[in-house]
Design goal:
This protein is mainly β. It contains no helices and nine strands. The radius of gyration is 15 Å and the shape is globular.
Length: 137
Amino acid sequence: MKHEHKDGKDFTFLIGKSIMKVEDKKLKDKYGYYVDGYVLTCKDGTIIEVELNEGCGGCGNGWSSFEDLKKLEENNNIITNVEIKYDSNDSDEDYFTMFVYYEDNTINQLKGDDGYGNGWYGGGFYVTIKDAYGDES
């Protein structure tokens, strides 16, 4: 997958992966600036980079986030399903819970925020998946 924009509901690319390590890192965006993000290392050597959207410098609009993405490294079994439920009490409908199901029948719940807010500063996440040889797939 080339550098693609994703919302929380689009994280089904995790299905079939086994995440061994999650690192908070500064990642270089498509403009060459460093942004907050995560690097997920999979058991098969695949590297998944997740860039957070950076929004307005004066308010909270446009800032996407994950509260607990590191939970993905707690279970190194293969992910068999990913379901997203958006918070119906959120007027912006940006907050979500991600349910990650594993082959050993355990479930992790992760909280996230697409961050769109008023919509002026974008939102979501930018994802790049590199295979074990460093090629973008």
